[in-house]
Design brief:
Elements (H helix, E strand, L loop, with lengths): L3 H6 L22 H25 L6 H12 L8 H15 L1 H4 L5 H6 L3 H4 L8 H11 L2 H16 L5 H13 L33 H6 L9 H24 L11 H7 L7 H10 L1 H24 L14 H37 L7 H5 L12 H27 L2 H25 L4 H15 L4 H31 L3 H29 L10 H15 L6 H24 L11 H9 L2 H21 L1 H4 L2 H25 L22
Helix pairs in contact: 2-3, 2-4, 2-22, 2-28, 3-4, 3-10, 4-21, 4-22, 8-18, 8-22, 9-18, 9-19, 9-21, 10-21, 12-28, 14-26, 14-28, 15-16, 15-25, 15-26, 16-19, 16-20, 16-23, 16-24, 16-25, 18-19, 19-20, 19-21, 20-21, 20-23, 21-23
C-alpha cells in the first residue's frame, strides 16, 4: 500500500505530553505478555505464510498488521501495553511468521523433492520431521546475530529509511498516543519507495518531507470498536469462504472465461478474499505489474510456445508444457531486475565506503559517528554476543547441514562458504531494502547459485542447499532490520527486540516444520492445491547451470526480456532515487515475473484488491482514509490462513469434498477430477 503515512493521519489525536519513560532501561520493553502475544500472532502468520507461500511463492512480513492486531488484543489486558512492548510483540511475531521463507519451506525443500534420479543423478530428497528441524536450526539464527552490527551501520550511522519499518513505527506511535517519531531519514537526491514485490515485501511507503509534516495534522479518535468489528467480519467472511471452497472446490476455481480456456489453458478465477486482501496490501501499482506479466506470459507466450511446438506437452506441465517454458523467461526477468537494482547499492558500498576510505577521501569525522547512537550499553546487544553467536551459528549450521544431507549432498566447506556469502549478500540486500523497501532475495539467491555452480559443479543438491543457506541469511537480516528501524523510532530496546527475535525463531522451527509435515502428508507438494512455483525456479536454474540446456527457443526470449527489464529496472531505479512521483507506475520486474510463475487465477483476484485500494484512497483521500481498509485486508488474509488449518485437519482425517459440481474443467484442487 502506497504512502501509509496518509493512512495514519486520520488516527492521530491531538499530540499530548507523554512521560518519556523509554529512555531508561529496557526491562519494561521485554515482558512476558508482549512475547506471548507475539508468539500467538506469529504462529498464525506462520501457518498463513506457509499456506500462501506453497500456493503462490509470495509471503508477507505482516509487521504492520502484527502491531495493529497486537494493540487490539492488548486492550483486553488489565494494564495497557506500552508502545515499546508492542514493538517487541511485532518483532517476535515477524521472526516467528517468516520462517517458511527463511528456511526454504516454500522453495528449497519442495525443489529437493522434485529431483529425478534418471535426470539429476540423485533421487528426490524428502526430509523427515527431525531432519527438517535440523535444517531449520542450521539457518534460523545466522541472520539474527548478523542484524545488530548491520543495525549500527544502516540505521544509526547512515539513517536509511526502511519505509515499512518507518510506517510501522508511525502507526504504533499513533495507536499509543505518542508524539510522531523523528524519522530523520537520509534523503539522497530525493527518496520515494518502490513497491515491494518479493516474499518479504508487501507494503510501499513514500517518505517525502511534506508527508512527514502532514503527520502533525489534527484527526479523530481511534475507533477501537469499529476496528474490532472490521477485523472480525472480514476474518469470518474469509474463513467461511475457505471452508466452502474445501467442500465445494469450484468456489475457488471458477471457469470465468469458459471451460475450454479453464481446462486447456488454465484460465480460471479464484475469488479468494485473502488474495483480494493481499492485493489491497500490495497496492495497485504492484498488482498491475503482476497482471501485466500474467497477460504477457499466459496470454501471449504460453499459446505461442504451444502452437510453435516449443512446448508440446500439456500447458500445465512444468517439464514439457508451456508453463515450464515461460518459467525460464520469468527467471531471466527476475535476475536482470534484481541485479540492475543492486548496481547503485554496490556502487555506494565499493566507491563511497571502501574506495574513499582506502584513499582517505572521506570526512573522517569519527566523533560525530559515535554520537549518533541514542541507546545506552545496557539496552544494546553486546558485540561479544554477536561474535560468539555468528561463529556458533556458522559452525553448528555447517555440522547440521552435513548431518541432514550427508557428505554426498554438500561438502562442509561449501556450506561454510554459503554462510560467508550469505553475510556478504546480506549487506547488499539490507541496503537495498533500506532505500527501496525491496529486499532482492530472489536475485541474491540466483547469484549464490551461479557462484556454487562454479566452485562445486555438477552437484544439483549442493547448488540448491548452498544457495538456500546464503539466501536465508540475507532474507532474515532484511526482515529483522525493518523491525529494528521501528524500534529505533519508538525508542524500544534493541536488546529486547533481539530476545524476541531469538524466541520467535526457536518456536517457529517447530511450528513451521510441523505445519509443513502435515501439509506434505495431506497434499501432494508440489501439486494441484500447492504448486510451490518457486521450487521450479530453484531446480530449473540448478539444472541449467549443470547441463546448459534450455527448452527450444526459450533462450532467445530470455535474452530479449532480460535486456528489456534491465532497461526498465534502470529507469525505475533512477526515477525512484530522483524522487519522481511516477516511479511507482513503472513496472516492477519481480512482480511482472511472478505473473508468469502463477496461473491467472492468483493474479486476477489480487488485481481486484489493488483496484479497491486505489479507488478507495482516490475517492476518500489518504488523509481521511484511516486504516480501516488495512484492518479489513488483514482480516481477509488471516481468515483464510487460519481456517486453512481446519481444512488441513479435515483432509488428514479423510473428510473429502461434498460435491464436485462445476468441476468438469478438472482444475479444482480438491476435486477427484483434477
Amino acid at each position: 500500500m502506497i504512502s501509509l503515512s496518509g493512512c495514519v493521519r486520520r488516527l492521530r489525536r491531538s499530540t499530548r505530553h507523554v512521560a518519556d519513560n523509554t529512555a531508561e532501561g529496557g526491562q519494561g520493553d521485554f515482558t512476558a505478555r508482549a512475547v506471548l502475544l507475539g508468539l500467538l500472532i506469529g504462529c498464525l502468520l506462520c501457518f498463513t505464510n506457509l499456506y500462501f507461500g506453497l500456493q503462490t511463492g509470495w509471503i508477507s512480513m505482516m509487521s504492520l498488521q502484527s502491531a495493529l492486531i497486537g494493540y487490539l488484543l492488548s486492550r483486553f489486558l488489565p494494564k495497557p501495553m506500552s508502545a515499546q512492548e508492542n514493538v517487541v510483540l511485532q518483532t517476535t511475531a515477524v521472526a516467528t511468521g517468516t520462517m517458511p521463507l527463511a528456511a526454504g519451506f516454500v522453495g528449497i525443500l519442495p525443489a529437493l523433492g522434485l529431483l529425478d534420479e534418471e535426470r539429476d543423478g540423485t533421487p528426490p530428497v524428502h526430509l523427515s520431521w527431525i531432519a527438517a528441524v535440523g535444517w531449520s536450526c542450521a539457518v534460523a539464527f545466522f541472520g539474527v546475530f548478523l542484524s545488530p552490527p548491520l543495525r549500527k551501520q544502516v540505521i544509526i550511522e547512515e539513517q536509511l529509511a526502511f519505509p515499512s519499518g518507518t510506517a510501522t513505527g508511525q502507526l504504533i506511535s499513533v495507536l499509543h498516543q505518542l508524539p510522531p517519531p523523528e524519522t530523520n531519514v537520509r534523503r539522497r537526491r530525493g527518496y520515494n519507495a518502490l513497491a515491494s514485490s518479493e516474499e518479504d515485501e508487501s507494503i510501499a511507503y513514500a517518505a517525502e518531507a511534506q508527508e512527514t509534516d502532514a503527520l502533525q495534522a489534527p484527526e479523530t479518535e481511534v475507533a477501537e470498536q469499529e476496528g474490532w468489528s472490521a477485523l472480525s467480519w472480514s476474518f469470518a467472511a474469509s474463513g467461511v469462504m475457505t471452508l466452502a471452497a474445501y467442500f465445494f472446490p469450484v468456489v475457488f476455481s471458477i471457469p470465468l472465461f469458459g471451460t475450454y480456456l479453464a481446462s486447456e489453458w488454465l484460465w480460471t478465477f479464484t475469488p479468494s478474499l485473502s488474495y483480494i486482501g493481499q492485493g489491497i496490501i500490495m497496492g495497485f501499482p504492484t498488482t498491475l505489474s503482476m497482471n501485466l506479466g500474467m497477460l504477457v506470459g499466459w496470454g501471449v507466450l504460453s499459446p505461442l510456445a504451444k502452437y510453435s511446438g516449443w512446448a508440446p506437452g500439456p500447458v500445465g506441465d512444468m517439464t514439457t508444457g508451456s508453463r515450464g517454458w515461460i518459467l525460464w523467461v520469468s527467471l531471466a526477468i527476475m535476475c536482470s531486475d534484481s541485479v540492475v537494482s543492486l548496481v547503485p547499492v554496490m556502487y555506494e558500498i565499493f566507491y563511497e565506503k571502501l574506495w574513499k576510505a582506502a584513499f582517505g577521501l572521506g570526512d573522517g569525522d569519527s566523533s560525530s559517528k559515535e554520537s549518533k547512537e541514542v541507546e545506552t550499553e545496557d539496552r544494546l546487544v553486546p558485540m561479544k554476543w554477536v561474535i560468539w553467536g555468528l561463529c556458533g551459528s556458522i559452525v553448528s549450521g555447517t555440522i547440521l547441514v552435513w548431518l541432514v544431507f550427508g557428505h554426498d549432498g554438500i561438502k562442509p566447506w561449501a556450506t561454510f562458504i554459503g554462510f560467508i556469502m550469505g553475510g556478504l549478500l546480506s549487506v547488499l540486500g539490507v541496503r537495498a531494502l533500506g532505500e527501496t523497501d525491496l529486499n532482492p532475495v530472489s536475485g541474491l539467491g540466483k547469484i549464490s547459485q551461479l557462484f556454487f555452480a562454479w566452485i562445486q559443479p555438477g552437484n544439483i543438491v549442493a547448488n540448491i542447499i548452498a544457495g538456500g543457506v546464503a539466501e536465508a541469511g540475507a532474507q532474515q537480516a532484511g526482515d529483522l532490520m525493518q523491525d529494528l528501524k521501528t524500534g529505533h523510532l519508538v525508542r524500544a530496546s534493541p536488546r529486547a527486540q533481539f530476545y524476541g527475535q531469538l524466541i520467535g525463531s526457536c518456536l517457529s522451527i517447530v511450528v513451521t516444520t510441523t505445519a509443513y509435515s502435515l501439509y506434505q502428508n495431506a497434499y501432494e507438494i508440489p501439486g494441484p492445491s500447492f504448486p510451490a512455483p518457486t521450487a521450479y525456479v530453484w531446480l530449473g536454474l540448478a539444472r541449467l547451470l549443470r547441463d546448459g540446456e534450455l527448452p527450444e527457443k526459450s533462450g532467445e526470449f530470455m535474452l530479449l526480456f532480460a535486456v528489456l527489464f534491465s532497461v526498465i529496472a534502470a529507469f525505475k531505479t533512477h526515477a525512484a532515487r530522483s524522487g519522481s512521483r511516477y516511479a511507482k507506475w513503472i513496472p516492477s520486474g519481480v512482480a511482472f515475473a511472478i505473473g508468469f510463475l502463477n496461473t491467472p487465477s492468483f493474479s486476477l483476484a489480487r488485481l481486484i484488491g489493488g483496484i479497491v485500494e486505489h479507488v478507495y484512497y482516490t475517492r476518500v483521500g489518504r488523509e481521511n482514509g484511516g486504516i480501516r481498509l488495512i484492518i479489513i485486508a488483514s482480516g481477509f488474509v488471516l481468515g483464510e490462513g487460519v481456517v486453512s488449518v481446519i481444512s488441513l485437519v479435515l483432509r488428514t482425517m479423510g473428510v473429502g469434498v461434498a460435491s464436485c459440481w462445476g468441476c468438469g474443467h478438472g482444475m479444482c484442487g480438491g476435486c477427484p477430477a483434477s
